[in-house]
Amino acid sequence: QAKGNTEILIPLKGSSIYGSKGGPLYDPVGGALLLKALKQNLDPKIPLREIDAHINDPEFADTCVNRFLHLFN
Is residue 23 part of a domain? Predict the structure, then answer.
């Protein structure tokens, strides 16, 4: 259980190089099911942000840093 400010950021285009489009573990159905399960079971007080980027994309990293600074400043 989180004790402080918490947000969950989900990279919609994949969370590993192997799971990206064309990779050996690419599974858009599985990713959609994971996101659906998170939305259904996550405490409504915890924001879930869907980021239209891959986890290795600079825009995802920038979003993570910006959200961190927002939460902890």
Answer: yes
